[in-house]
Design goal:
It is an enzyme of class 3 (hydrolase). Its EC number is 3.2.2.6. The protein is of the alpha/beta class. It has one domain: Rossmann fold (3-Layer(aba) Sandwich). The chain is built from nine helices and four strands. It has helices spanning about 20-25, 25-35, 45-50, 55-65, 75-80, 80-100, 110-115, 125-130, 135-155, and strands at about 15, 40-45, 70-75, 100-105. It has a four-stranded parallel beta sheet with strand order 2-1-3-4, sandwiched between helices.
């Protein structure tokens, strides 16, 4: 991948995407600490975002200046957050267009439910549906794609 003078300078090695109210104080902190302890520069919204920042614009800029994303996909709660889904969609777009590295962590869900958008994983998208159909379909595609990465990782590890 050729670099151009217009591409953003990398600020973070890792962009950590998660549903804060579900994992910020438990699982996410257990992921964050060893990364930071080994000297990895991690974007963590609590450390970096200023009050009053335009959330989606700022997160998009931070994703653009990171070269690795760890996606923590939660049960229904990750998909119920529009900002999490917008973040995920942005990350998956960058994966497809710029080779952005995406490592999903499924906590504590079965990725097959996410890939099929079945049961409890379908409900949040139904709730978003009336608002902006095109955007919701883009979010669904990103959600299914990140769940499909689990199959690729299993095959790679075998």
């Amino acid at each position: 991948m050729a670099s151009s003078s217009s591409s953003p300078q990398m600020k973070h090695q890792v962009f950590l995407s998660f549903r804060g109210e579900d994992t910020r104080l438990n699982f996410t902190s257990h992921v964050l600490k060893p990364l930071k302890d080994t000297g990895i520069n991690v974007f963590f919204d609590e450390d970096t975002l200023e009050k009053g920042d335009e959330l989606l614009v700022t997160l998009s800029q931070e994703i653009a200046t990171s070269n690795l994303s760890i996606i923590i996909v939660l049960s229904v709660n990750y998909a119920s957050s529009k900002s999490c889904l917008a973040e995920l969609s942005n990350i998956m777009d960058r994966k497809d267009t710029e080779g952005h590295i995406v490592l999903p962590i499924f906590y504590p869900v079965d990725p097959s439910g996410l890939r099929n958008l079945a049961g409890r994983f379908k409900t949040p998208f139904d709730d978003h549906e009336p608002e902006k159909l095109d955007q919701v379909q883009q979010w669904q595609a990103a959600f299914v794609e990140v769940a499909s990465l689990e199959v690729l990782m299993k095959n790679w590890l075998e």
